[in-house]
Specification:
Layout: E1 12-15, H1 17-27, E2 34-38, E3 47-52, H2 53-58, H3 65-68, H4 82-92, E4 96-100, E5 106-111, H5 112-153, E6 157-162, E7 167-170, H6 172-178, H7 182-185, H8 200-213, E8 215-223, E9 229-240, E10 246-255, H9 257-271, H10 281-298, E11 301-309, H11 312-319, H12 321-336, E12 344-349, E13 352-360, H13 363-375, E14 381-383, E15 386-388, E16 392-399, H14 406-422, E17 428-430, H15 435-454, E18 458-467, E19 473-482, H16 494-504, H17 507-522, E20 533-537, H18 547-555, E21 565-570, H19 571-574, H20 579-590, E22 594-600, H21 607-612, E23 617-620, H22 622-626, H23 632-647, E24 651-655, H24 660-668, E25 673-675, H25 685-693
Parallel strand pairs: 1-2, 16-17, 19-20, 20-21, 21-22, 22-23, 23-24, 24-25
Antiparallel strand pairs: 2-3, 4-5, 6-7, 6-10, 8-9, 9-10, 11-13, 11-16, 12-13, 14-15, 18-19, 18-25
Amino acid sequence: MLTARDCLCPRYRAVGALQRYRDVTSLGNNGTLVFAVFEEDAERGRFLGLVDVREAALFPARVFADLLVRRQPPPLDPATPIEAVWARFEAERCDFLPLIDADGVFRGVVSRLALVAAMMEHERALSQERERLIANLHCELENRRIAAAVFDATAEGIMVTDAKGRILLVNAAFCRTTGYSEQEAIGQTPALLKSGRHDAAFYAAMWRTIDETGSWEGEVWNRRKSGEIYPEWLHIDLVRDEHGAPRYYVGVFADIGTHKELRAQLMHLAYHDALTGLPNRRLLLDRLGQAIARAQRNDTEVGVLFLDLDRFKDINDTHGHGTGDRILIEAAHRLTGLVRANDTVARLGGDEFAILVEDIADEAALADVAEKLLNAFSTPFTCDEREFFLAASIGIARYPGDGDTVDALLMNADTAMYGAKQQGRGRYHFFASDMHRRLARRIEAADVLRKALASSGLTLAWQPQVRLADGMIAGAEVLLRLARHDGAASPPTPAELVAAAEESGLITALGQWVLRETCELGGRLDGLASRLRIAVNFSPLQFDHGCAARVLDLLGGCGALAQSIEIEVTESVLASENEHLVQALETFAAAGINIAVDDFGSGYSNLGNLLHLHVDKLKIDQVFVGGLERDEKSRKIVQTIIQMGHNLGMTVVAEGVETQAQAQILREFGCDLAQGFLFARPLPFEDFARLLASGPLTAQ
């Protein structure tokens, strides 16, 4: 409230009579100047009255007693309201009023002008406050509009009830989710949505939590207006009044039906193979762990069969992954149909499957399961009106004999599967304790090979191929060797190195090194190389899409020596369905590169391949050569191969010739070339070069 104190005039002087005159004469008549007149001592003197500057100028050096005897306006209390001050000015018809407090102490002067200025300043302050309040009101209204828009626009359903549970307010999402309109819901209770899936104890616990903590959150099943029951995630908050009593309950909920379906799908994807729908490795590990626990309690056995499709990569490479995927789906369907309902068929990745069999009686029972699984591949797979013939290799491990943990059983079944592949594929093999030793040997060989490729740790041995007619060296086969053993007690054999290269993916790099080294060393033979055929062995895994291009590019830098290089493949390679192989051999033949077939007659013979492929040389397997002296059947087979080869215009080489008697029989049969310890063991290049220059070879 504005009072007289707020209107004090700043221009007044409280002085004695003499000082008052000096003030008047020094200040002149500029502006309004009011003098408060006291007794002579201004500090302690009694207040006598007010005079203005004109009055003071009229009576210099006097005490103004004649003026002061006039009626002076009664003084004001500083706390007088401004309305009363204005009324006093009107009543007294004066321009100044003194302020005297309750103790009689003079506090100042109030003028009409100061009063008007104070009232105007007060009005300005009131106007500013009014404008601030109006702005705040507009902001509050805007916030309320925003809150209302958010309330209706939010995706979650909102329901507000009073303290007795009567619905006061719902939003649009509530109506969309429940199917009830706003008019149908308001005035009802949340029981409108009860599904009947929760008992009284559930709701009692929920409301007890709300009363104790002020909120509750959890999953609730409710019923729409249509009768459909759905799950929702509900959050309830209690709003209390100023006394702490419940006033409102606010429920916010979201329909999580689609989320539960999505979660179920994600859970399925997390534990199942996306392509075949079979359990994946994670689910298999879980089930295998449970199976081991049950077998331990019940004193029973568990079997794990690790199945790998043989040469499935060839189908993917030649016919595309789409075809491969369809074959995998069909394979999964066949395998699932052959096991019991409580057994598990899982896809571990690629073309690898695992079968978990519980409650097995003995090894024979697992063998029966393995036979059924192998027979599943006896029928060809049909895809895009084309038939594909596949086989599988199966490794078998048993609990508890072959391992008592999940990891041990799977690892041992995998190891046994590799044993099945080494025995010829298309069969099953039980785990044996020495398999780990062989597996460790393969891993060690791969490590040795990797280091040797990186550090010039490999070399080539050259074994001569001799014309039986005159003993002249007409060719050589280059063979892989380790240049150094690095102190190893039992270094990997050449066969182990090649197998390690095939399993570890190093075969292409190794093949390139062998061919490049052969060209570099062969170039040192000068003119002697022109009368040779230098055979380089190729693994079937080298025949991929870029094989022919890599070989021709490398041979392009070998000059005339390139015409001496001979590509040697095993007979089993010709029996494969690798289209890259056929294309590469045709490309090599067109480039003038000879093709030799090694180990001919060892069990994979397919005469049709000899007719369709350009083959220049047949090499008789040493098994038959070794039986020439004592076995009539071996002699007939060797003689037949020689005659057939000559009839087809091919050169025939006998491998593993170790005795003069074997060499003589081969001469009589008309065999062209021979290689073996009878003539020379595989030699370092320098020794081979000297032997080549020495002339015809005699038996060693």
